[in-house]
Amino acid sequence: MQEENIGFWSHASVQIDSVVTCNTKVSLISMRTDHHIDSSLDGYKWSKYGQKLTKGNSSLRTYFRCAMAPICPVKKKVQRSAEDKSVVVAIYEGEHNHPIHSNCKESIQNHLDDNSVKELFCNAFLNSFSTNVDLELSL
DNA sequence: CGGGTTTGACCAGCGC
DNA sequence: GCGCTGGTCAAACCCG
Asked: Where's it found, cell-wise (predicted)?
């Protein structure tokens, strides 16, 4: 568990909680922000394969898998918190087994123009994985 | 035309 | 066995 405060996002904070179940790493990331969260902003390219209206939460849950599949087994689920709609909860399942997508490096740089904030943001996400890949981020 | 997204259908697991 | 729910599939659709 770790927390990062990111000034770029108004009133934003990132809370990360990771557990390992059945050899699959599951990371729960909750972020308070009013900004739209780009699905590729965590440095990987995702493809959406479904969305559901779940019981007990009026917000849609969206399902993504890593676009590097079938090489990469990682999936993520994204849903706004039932209690606080300004909180985005992302559940990552599995670990990436490939380098970060080169296009995503540019995506991050386009979205975040302040270097210190960019570093905080990237670290908050990337530290949630025990990846051994070469990230090559030019922060 | 190709790749990504949308969305209803389908399937599996679970509780009763 | 049946119904409910979450997760996935895949055809249709959209957009560059």
From this structure: Nucleus
